[in-house]
Amino acid sequence: MAAFDRGLALLRSKGASDVYFLGDAVGYFPSVAVLHRLREERIPCLMGNHEAMLLSGDIPPERDAVYRLRDTFNLLTDDWLAWIASWPRLRRIEVGTQRLLLVHGSPVDPTFDYVYPDTDLARFADAAAEAVFMGNTHRPFLRSFGGTLFVNIGSSGLPRDHGAWGSVCLYDAAAGRARILRYSILDTTSELVARFGDLHPTVLNTLARRSSEAPYGEICD
């Protein structure tokens, strides 16, 4: 949760007036700490593929060895599960003249689709929004297509482009401008590895991933 808190604090320090969470508060670590913070802060949430799998119980054993969703399920009461089940699959927001679409996956599959930096955006031509915000792939990018700005916000705690740098997105609706903000999570991930000694190698490898290129976005610390 420390990485999530750091990203939240960064957004607020940069003047964010409204904060939205685009899904996957659970998974990889058998913990519900982020859920508690989201509820405590009354942050509007979207259903991610991890929440959908958690609720359905439809998790192949080989995948759950990575996701640890059954372990997480066992930490939740019926009240918490009902709250998660209330999360919508998408949100449409109007800010001034800006129509914003918030999803976890993509405009055509809000929960489970994957949109990468090199994904063909033509199939989202009917998004009916000036800006679309996504997550799921944990790979941040800003791209424009057909008059729409497409934003993948990346991940606050498990980025897949560079494991030492969490990411959040700050959007200025008046200017129609998005910024990907990166912040160091090296110390928080080290603490997680020490705390959860049985993390799957896939997760450990993702946290240890480094790149010869600078992380995408603006380095803020």
Q: Can you offer a commentary on this structure?
A:
This protein has a 5-stranded mixed β-sheet with strand order 1-2-3-5-4, with no helix packed on it. It has a 3-stranded mixed β-sheet with strand order 6-7-8, covered by helices on one side. It is globular, with a radius of gyration of 17 Å. Helices cover 30% and strands 20% of the residues. A hairpin with a 4-residue loop joins strand 6 (165-172) and strand 7. The protein has one domain: Metallo-dependent phosphatases (Purple Acid Phosphatase, chain A, domain 2, 4-Layer Sandwich). The protein has helices at 2-13, 33-41, 49-56, 61-67, 69-73, 78-85, 186-195, 201-207; strands at residues 90-95, 98-103, 131-134, 141-145, 148-152, 165-172, 177-184, 218-219. The mean pLDDT is 94. The chain is an alpha/beta fold and 221 residues long. The protein has 8 helices and 8 strands; from the N terminus they run ααααααβββββββααβ.
What share of the residues does DSSP label as strand, in percent? 15-25%
The main sheet orders its strands as: 1-2-3-5-4
Per CATH, the superfamily is: Metallo-dependent phosphatases
The overall number of domains is: 1
CATH architectural label = 4-Layer Sandwich
State the shape: globular
Summarize the biggest pleated sheet: 5 strands, mixed
CATH topology: Purple Acid Phosphatase, chain A, domain 2
Question: End-to-end distance, in Å?
Answer: 18 Å
**Which residue ranges are poorly predicted, with pLDDT under 50 across at least 5 consecutive positions?**
none
Class inferred from helices and paired strands: alpha/beta
Assembly state: single chain
- Helical segment tally? 8
Helix content: 25-40%
Radius of gyration: 17 Å
Number of strands: 8
Mean of all residue-level pLDDT scores: 94
